[in-house]
Amino acid sequence: xxxxxxxxxxxxxxxxxxxxxxxxxxxxxxxxxxxxxxxxxxxxxxxxxxxxxxxxxxxxxxxxxxxxxxxxxxxxxxxxxxxxxxxxxxxxxxxxxxxxxxxxxxxxxxxxxxxxxxxxxxxxxxxxxxxxxxxxxxxxxxxxxxxxxxxxxxxxxxxxxxxxxxxxxxxxxxxxxxxxxxxxxxxxxxxxxxxxxxxxxxxxxxxxxxxxxxxxxxxxxxxxxxxx
Amino acid sequence: xxxxxxxxxxxxxxxxxxxxxxxxxxxxxxxxxxxxxxxxxxxxxxxxxxxxxxxxxxxxxxxxxxxxxxxxxxxxxxxxxxxxxxx
Lengths: 228, 87
Fold this sequence. Notes:
Chain A has one domain: Rossmann fold. Chain A is built from five helices and eleven strands. Chain A has helices at about 15-25, 70-75, 85-95, 150-160, 210-225, and strands spanning about 1-5, 30-35, 45, 80-85, 100-105, 110-120, 135-140, 145-150, 165, 180, 190. In chain A, the strands form two sheets. Chain A has a nine-stranded mixed beta sheet with strand order 2-1-3-4-11-10-9-6-7, with helices on both faces. Chain A has a two-stranded antiparallel sheet with strand order 5-8. Chain A is globular and about 40 Å long. The two termini of chain A are about 15 Å apart. The mean pLDDT of chain A is about 95. Chain B is of the alpha+beta class. Chain B has a single domain (about 1-85), classed as Phosphoribosylformylglycinamidine synthase subunit PurS (Mth169, Chain: A). Chain B has helices at about 15-30, 55-70; strands at about 1-10, 40-45, 75-80. The longest helix of chain B has 16 residues, at about 55-70. The mean pLDDT of chain B is about 90. Classes of the chains: A alpha/beta, B alpha+beta. The interface of A and B includes residues 101 and 104 of A. Chain B: GO terms for molecular function: ATP binding; phosphoribosylformylglycinamidine synthase activity. Chain B: One of its GO terms (cellular component) is cytoplasm. Chain B: Part of the FGAM synthase complex composed of 1 PurL, 1 PurQ and 2 PurS subunits. Chain B: This is Phosphoribosylformylglycinamidine synthase subunit PurS.
């Protein structure tokens, strides 16, 4: 399968993601500039962390108007997997592909740490490699990771099982300990923690592999259905 | 020419840790009379001549809804000031 990694001015995790997909997952991967307007030929899209446009105005608010975004919206609508990590999550909320928004951490501090997450839904195309309620350890590194949505939206997220990962010890003040959510259709995931920084034991954790492996399994099962 | 002053503020339900840090620091400096402090954003947009008030209102609202404010957590309001060049 072939992954696209979107690169915006100020993205800084695109190469970590690239090597995670290429060297650990052994899958095809290509960097796609924010200036492009097509995602044809890709099976999954990854939006990396970083500080696109210096977080000017709000995190993700400017990147959200890049030429690549209409293609991303069409790709998301097609049902294929889209994963936004950290700034990628912020861009997805600003682009209206995920509900809610990411605010300043409650402590007003940038937090760089490894956090235990609880797998809250192990049936999604991003988490099928995990077991329900399993604890996984992933690094976080953000100043604006405090997920906020109103009560009605939260009720919807819960009712539709869209909350995939929760923090065990909420580090940033997120509503309902939310670390990662999907859209209603379940094919767009935004998460603040960085799975690409946890793909080898030497990095302190290899729990991130489960997320990429889940996507690969999903895409390959779809291929069989389509072509088989 | 017209100058549009746009103010973007957090909704009441939104916690603003930056504003709280500033308020606390002022408290430490001895400014005891401060009951509450809000931190928002302020934009000055200068508009070209010849735009009708109706078109300007429409465009400024559109700009705010689309980009300057995030309706999830922010409110905005604006005022339009005619500048000297228009006279």
